[in-house]
TrEMBL record:
This is Guanylate kinase. The lineage of its organism: Bacteria, Pseudomonadati, Pseudomonadota, Alphaproteobacteria, Hyphomicrobiales. Gene3D superfamilies: Guanylate Kinase phosphate binding domain, P-loop containing nucleotide triphosphate hydrolases. GO terms for molecular function: ATP binding; GMP kinase activity. It is found in: Cytoplasm. Residues 188-212 are annotated as: Disordered. GO terms for cellular component: cytosol. InterPro entries: GK/Ca_channel_bsu, Guanylate_kin-like_dom, Guanylate_kinase, Guanylate_kinase_CS, P-loop_NTPase. Essential for recycling GMP and indirectly, cGMP. Its EC number is 2.7.4.8. The keyword Lipid biosynthesis does not apply. It comes from Nitratireductor aquibiodomus RA22. It catalyses: GMP + ATP = GDP + ADP.
């Protein structure tokens, strides 16, 4: 009997799904990119976050978010039911662990539209599964214009701008790390690639667009 593996047997090896993580400051355009990917690239599923933020009139439970009380969120966090979580502008956001692990095991690819804090945690916990992209607006002036347009439910544009500055500083540190490592051409797990600048405007709330 031959010890060689047949081509048919090789094709039976289960493919593990991947996690495509889009992160950015609020208003930078990641949700626009996420919608485009979902519409034009078959096979991606959007990860729906949990949040303690109050539901807006245009949002649907289980489609845009899973809305939780702060106590419910804390129980999920303390029971390790969240892959990542963060507090953003006074509200909590997180990624439920179970649906993501089920999708990856079944070979399905997941798309994440989250803030930079969550992206960093996913890179640490799921390093071998994550492809991470950080998105910036072209200028701070344009970001301010977008945040003013998207002001529904936002507590203070100035607070958002201060947070955006912190997020931009975080991105700059990531870019410096890449430069120090020699700008390797081969992708390495858990690192941001080149930051993308989104010039398209953002629009109304969509599934798991977090946070606006």
């Amino acid at each position: 009997m031959s010890s060689e593996t047949s081509p048919a047997a090789l094709t039976d090896v289960a493919r593990r799904g991947l996690m495509l993580v889009l992160s950015s400051p609020s208003g930078a355009g990641k949700s626009t990119i996420a919608r485009t990917l979902l519409a034009q690239v078959p096979g991606f599923e959007l990860s729906v976050s949990v949040t303690t933020r109050a539901r807006r009139g245009s949002e649907i439970e289980g489609v845009h978010y899973h809305f939780k009380s702060q106590r419910e969120f804390e129980i999920m966090r303390d029971n390790d039911e969240l892959l990542e979580w963060a507090e953003v502008h006074g509200n909590f956001y997180g990624t439920p662990r179970a649906p993501v692990e089920k999708a990856l095991t079944e070979g399905r690819d997941m798309l994440f539209d989250i803030d930079w804090q969550g992206a960093e945690q996913l890179r640490e916990k799921m390093r071998g599964d994550v492809v991470s992209i950080f998105i910036l607006p072209p200028t701070m002036k344009e970001l301010l214009g977008r945040l003013t347009t998207l002001a529904e439910g936002i507590r203070g544009t100035q607070e958002i701008i201060q947070t955006q500055s912190q997020e931009r500083a975080h991105r700059d540190r990531e870019v410096d790390r890449l430069r120090l490592r020699g700008h390797q051409r081969t992708a390495r797990p858990g690192l941001f690639g080149r930051p993308l600048h989104c010039r398209g405007g953002a629009s109304a709330p969509r599934p798991a667009s977090r946070p606006v």
